[in-house]
Design brief:
The chain has 326 residues and is α+β, with helices and mostly antiparallel strands. The protein folds into two domains: 170 residues, Ribosomal Protein S5, domain 2 (2-Layer Sandwich), CATH 3.30.230.10; 140 residues, Alpha-Beta Plaits (2-Layer Sandwich). Helix content is 37%, strand content 27%. The protein is built from eight helices and 14 strands. Strands 1, 4, 5, 6, 7, 8, 9 and 14 form an eight-stranded mixed β-sheet that branches. Ligand FM0 binds next to helix 4.
Length: 326
């Protein structure tokens, strides 16, 4: 009753921002991401009838109570589905640069969903697996697949039609994603709390909802055409709209720091030099810069010159979740 899975992180080009159901983690809008090759989580789950509670090790250390509780609550749904009352030892290794805890990583829940369902004896189709990953963290449902992936929001109250589907294989549209880590000294508002406050209090949120599905269909068209310019313009515009909604929340909040703006301006400056680069940001100050592979060194070199840029990781579209030999 043991299995090991490897899942990669993803970066949303059309953001998931806001839930219509907090407990089932059902989104207000559909989203679209690209799974990245560089960052991943490897998780081993071993169910054992001798255990009287779940035990969780994160990066080799026994996890704190909060993370352990979150994993144990998550395994409850899988035990219930499998009709097996077994506890497990869970070991997760995050190969992700930020000190992101388990809770906030898409790769973490995608790897946990795959390893736990396999270990307990379920052989789920990717669509079912995507739904289990979604119950851990919304963006995790997209990391089940590689390449460009759409999370269809679904309309049913039970969430049975809310899962990810593959749009384009990781080898079919070679772009570069430079993951830029900037200096950060502030505790951020976690994405779960941030989107909740925004949905509940921001007058700008309706504007987000009114335009995001159009952005999504335009971006899918850009993927069909392999049109990087169109992809970049839409992704950058969509990220800025998502972040704009937080400024209208009560109390207002924002994720950017001065370093974030320096990177954004450098990217717009590159475009004025004729280098095609676009930026997107999630719930934090770090920036992902999109460019074509032939420009990635030029873009890297210009970003590296920004004093507040701490590290840059060059990523490319990566694979979906895999079960590893234990
Ligand atoms: O990734 C995106 O589409 C956009 C965001 O990264 C923007 F910040 C949100 C990801 O939220 P997640 O951590 O999945 O939330 P959960 O469902 O409350 O766990």
């Amino acid at each position: 009753m043991k299995a090991t899975a490897k899942a990669h992180t993803n970066i949303a080009l059309i953001k998931y921002w806001g839930k219509r159901d907090e407990s089932l983690i059902l989104p207000m809008n559909s989203s679209l991401s690209v799974t990245l090759d560089t960052f991943y989580t490897v998780t081993t789950v071993e169910f054992n009838e001798k255990l009287t509670e779940d035990v969780f090790f994160l990066n080799g250390e026994k996890a704190d109570h909060t993370d352990t509780e979150r994993v144990s609550n998550y395994l409850r749904a899988i035990r219930k589905f499998a009709k097996k009352h077994l506890f497990a030892v869970v070991r997760s290794e995050n190969h992700v640069p930020t000190a992101a805890g388990f809770a906030s990583s898409a790769s973490g829940y995608a790897a946990l969903a795959a390893a736990a369902t396999k270990a307990i004896g379920l052989n789920l189709h990717p669509q079912e697996l995507s739904q289990f990953a979604r119950l851990g963290s919304g963006s995790a449902c997209r990391s089940i697949y590689g390449g460009f992936v759409e999370w269809q929001k679904g309309v049913k109250e039970d969430g049975s039609d809310s899962f990810a589907v593959p749009i384009l294989h990781e080898d079919d549209f070679p772009i570069a994603v430079l993951s830029v880590m900037v200096a950060t000294n502030r505790k951020k508002v976690l994405s779960r709390a941030g989107m909740k406050r925004t949905v509940e209090t921001s007058p700008f949120y309706q504007g987000w909802l009114d335009t995001v599905e159009h952005d999504l269909s335009e971006l899918k068209h850009a993927l069909e055409l392999r049109d990087f310019t169109l992809l970049g313009e839409i992704a950058e515009r969509n990220a800025l709209k998502m972040h704009a909604t937080t400024l209208g929340a009560n109390p207002p909040f924002y994720y950017w720091q001065s370093a974030t703006m320096e990177v954004m301006e450098a990217v717009q400056n590159m475009r004025s030099q004729g280098i095609e680069a676009y930026f997107t940001m999630d719930a934090g100050p770090n920036v992902k810069v999109l460019c074509l592979p032939e420009d990635e060194q030029k873009v890297y070199d210009q970003l590296k010159q920004i004093p507040s840029v701490k590290k840059i990781f060059t990523c490319h579209p990566g694979p979906g979740v895999t079960i590893l030999p234990t």
